[in-house]
Design brief:
The chain is mainly alpha-helical and 241 residues long. The protein is built from eleven helices and no strands.
């Protein structure tokens, strides 16, 4: 199980390593294409309140992995613990490191200010500043202005990435723990893996994160879920007696 969790973690880590490898850096939205709108729609599946819908959908999709409703309910509890734990770790790290997002750094540069001055404001005022600036930017579409307006928190680590990585770890972990090697199980893992990879790509393409944010978020999800599944395996909680 540990090897399989690590394998899929490595898969997600390929995204930040690839971005570093090609020396890609976000600096404004001049490179946006029509395809980025679809990345925006995908990234919204990890944004509040849509992330709650995503969680409900995944708990339903995971149901076939379990032997009976009681086992599934227990699985849902584990899923909830995993999502809450990883999001709590992300929130704590953001508060500790206070790393500005790329789009806020760009805003500060263009207005001859500093990211520190931007983040001195409360969230409401930061949202207004971001909206006013990017609304005047002809190359930034309205849907992205709206996204910036709602995402004026800190950058490191990526909350969307840790959300996607957590669900991938849960899919891999439960298929391994429950010994489900069916085609449906493999399809579930593959689908969430593709969703996760695109989620990571979207966060950099839209100016929300740096590659290091993706890498650390992925590793945090791996660490927390490795501990969770090691505990579940040791205690044989999902073993039907």
């Amino acid at each position: 199980m540990f090897k399989r969790l690590s394998l899929y973690t490595l898969l997600l880590c390929l995204v930040p390593f690839f971005i570093w490898g090609i020396s890609y850096q976000w600096h404004g939205n001049s490179q946006l294409t029509q395809a980025d709108y679809w990345l925006y729609l995908l990234t919204e599946t990890g944004s509040v309140p849509y992330a709650l819908i995503t969680c409900v959908l995944f708990t339903i999709l995971f149901a076939f992995l379990f032997k009976n409703p009681k086992q599934w309910i227990l699985g849902v509890i584990v899923m909830g613990i995993s999502v809450i734990a990883t999001q709590a770790a992300k929130t704590g790290a953001k508060a500790l490191f206070e790393e500005p997002r790329p789009f806020t750094v760009y805003l500060a540069e263009q207005t001859h200010s500093t990211p520190a001055n931007f983040y001195k404001n409360d969230r409401t005022l930061r949202a207004e500043i971001a909206k006013n600036f990017y609304s005047m930017d002809a190359i930034t579409p309205a849907w992205l202005v709206h996204h910036y307006e709602n995402e004026t928190g800190y950058s490191f680590p990526s909350g969307h990435t840790i959300f996607a990585a957590t669900w991938l770890m849960l899919a891999v972990g439960f298929t391994q723990l429950l010994g489900n090697r069916s085609f449906k199980a493999k399809l579930l893992v593959a689908g969430i893996a593709v969703w996760g990879l695109l989620m990571l790509i979207s966060r950099v393409r839209l100016g929300m994160h740096y590659p290091i944010d993706l890498l650390v978020a992925t590793l945090l999800a791996w660490l927390i879920n490795s501990i969770i599944f090691a505990f579940l395996k040791k205690k044989a909680i999902f073993v039907i007696k």
